[in-house]
């Protein structure tokens, strides 16, 4: 490999990683301010959070890249690519993609809270990618921040020398110079040879109505410039590069992207499926024969159906999901139909928060009225005939007498909590079929509880209850373990003796009667009254395990009778009775979104 040229030696690429709400975006704002790429009129809080929903919730959802220039104390100019990443566990795939484009990571730890769940997860992701970690203890301006204690925790748990920790404040800007100097001196420049064939990794992509699909890449070898033909190695499709550029922080076109650069490419790509995140691109005339294998495929953990309220919006929903899946590689979907809701899509998500964000983006960005069905996990079914099936929709479950065994996904979870809440957390874990593996005390005040859980127990209300019993201090991180046999049953919900397949769910037999009863009660509360009574039933196979009846909305048809023979009133009441009977036979029941969400609230 040739010696690094001067300009490549002065390139630095790093991601900012942290647990949620530890101050990543605020610290990124201060770095942008200090390096002067924004004037005061352009500056606003959470500058790199582009979406309205991110700014409302104060949570980063999409990784954002910005190229900044910094003159270091050694009087040399450096080009630095900064990638701000999400902190929530449901967007871990975004973090993984960002780290694949970097040589280092800025690990932010809230000095008042210490190391938490995603702190460790993101640190381990960075170590897996062989990145240099620069630990920063943020919020040093708070009285509750204990710099020495937090730095000792970092040394004990992560093995990083406590003396390397940098004290900083995203609010006041304290420590920004030390952070930038550490990035220059501790994070290595990108390796690679500009004379080798082009070898670049697609780390993100999005759709522009005027320019088509725009891809964000990291150049590992060679260079890319307008007028050259590029080849996508997975699909073998060729495109002519029109423009290349960087975000500075707004899109800025440059003559070329050189070895080590992170930037965007516009190549007249019209088909969304052509630009696959994780694909390698090379030059048509001077090709590389070794694709970059740095990104793992994301595996959806939670599945739910998304249906348009108006059937005419089906194609618009399909186009919207295609565009979102381009922008969010962890979203997967396939077409499905429901007897109650019509045509829609079965979508795979990384978690409930991910599902909630996708739902809001469909409603806000694409103006779609949708219904999201109850979430479920993937099950492995072994049939008596010997074959094995993977299903992610309760309606796909075969007849019980044909099934030999059912296996559900289990996860290994790490719960980080102050010691005073351990007893309550253990009771909660036990109620959710958790199996305790280990308890480790980081110090006298904090502990890590390791549990194995069925994934189905985690996706409902576990996280909310964990936050409630720990007064918001406990945090959760989990990874998929394996499939394990369980005594599971499918519960069908019937409205007036008709199964509503979108409300069906699978749970453990021990909890089936209680959940069936509570769900019938919840549905009764959420459904609107009709002109006829509605029977709400929960059933396992042909056995009804619970029933509620929603009474009819009574209309006084005798109000217009001002006296006369009683037979006149009886005739009107009999006519109303026959009409209600006919309505009950042919009428349809509108199911609101709250009914599907009620499954999440049952305990």
Keywords, separated by commas or semicolons:
29 strands; single chain; alpha+beta; disordered N terminus; 15 helices; Alpha-Beta Plaits; eight-stranded antiparallel sheet; Rossmann fold; 603 residues; Elongation Factor Tu (Ef-tu), domain 3
Kindly describe this structure:
The chain is an alpha+beta fold. The chain folds into five domains: 6-186, P-loop containing nucleotide triphosphate hydrolases (Rossmann fold); 199-283, Beta Barrel (Elongation Factor Tu (Ef-tu), domain 3); 302-373, Alpha-Beta Plaits (2-Layer Sandwich), CATH 3.30.70; 380-485, Alpha-Beta Plaits; 489-601, Alpha-Beta Plaits (2-Layer Sandwich), CATH 3.30.70.2570. It has 15 helices and 29 strands. The strands form five sheets. It has an eight-stranded antiparallel sheet, with helices on one face. A six-stranded mixed sheet has the order 2-3-1-4-5-6, with helices on both faces. Strands 19, 20, 21, 22, 23 and 24 form a six-stranded antiparallel sheet that branches. A hairpin with a 5-residue loop joins β2 (64-71) and β3. The protein is globular and about 105 Å long. The model is unreliable at 1-6 (pLDDT under 50).
